[in-house]
Amino acid sequence: MKKFLALMLAMLMVLALCACGQAKTPAAEEKAPAVVGGWTISEDAALTEEARAAFEKAMEGLTGVGYEPVALIGTQVVSGTNYCILCEARTIVPDAAPYYALVYVYADLKGGAELMNIAALNIGDIAETGEIKAADPASGNLLGGWKLDRESTVEVDGALLHLASQLVNGTNHCVLCQGGKLAFVYESLDGKTELKSEVALDPGALRG
Residues with Cβ < 8 Å from 44, sequence gap 6 or more? Predict the structure, then answer.
């Protein structure tokens, strides 16, 4: 009888240990933030208070072009923090067309902030070539038939923010997705969608 009770007790302990191990599995499998070239990609692209404060301080006194921050692409810890912020940019002249730009800001450990680089993005060129590269704002043709559009919605995995659209025989969409990717999606006139391409928005590539 004692051997039977001892065996039952041992089995119960094994089952309890297994249950504990299973309970810890989901936490162990939590997705870690993507890290690209030393940059940690923002999971939800929301601008943190620290990033906004650094952006506003770094942009003080800048004239000629207005920049509205719309998404935090990534951060890089150095002796302080580098921020890569996606902005809507508009040259301050009548009827100027808006475009997107990556603004790089460095925040030091003493509360100071410095503008490091601004890289204009040509959505149309990215869609066509599949490459992320700085564009020349002076060209006046940064969209290639695309228009800035943060109001539309389209189904795509990991979508965070709709950025731009292009009317064709249907509609092309550019969407910022989790992992710092730009997804280009075609939506037909009957509402069917097709993912055409994904382009990684590597913050380090345009850091300057």
Answer: 160, 178
State both tokens at 158. Answer: 């990991």
End-to-end Cα, the chain, rounded Å: 77
For residues 167 and 189, the answer to whether their CB atoms sit within 8 Å is no
159: Cα within 13 Å, side-chain hemisphere: 17
The position carrying tokens 């990991």 is 158
Beta-carbon count within 10 A of 193 CB: 15
Rounded CA-CA distance 128/114 in Å is 33
DSSP-assigned states of every residue in 56-82:
HHHTTT--SEEEEEEEEEEEEEESEEE
User: What tens digit of pLDDT does each residue of 50-72 get?
Assistant: 999 999 999 998 989 999 999 99
Look-up: residue for tokens 């162990």? 28
pLDDT more than 90, % of the chain: 68
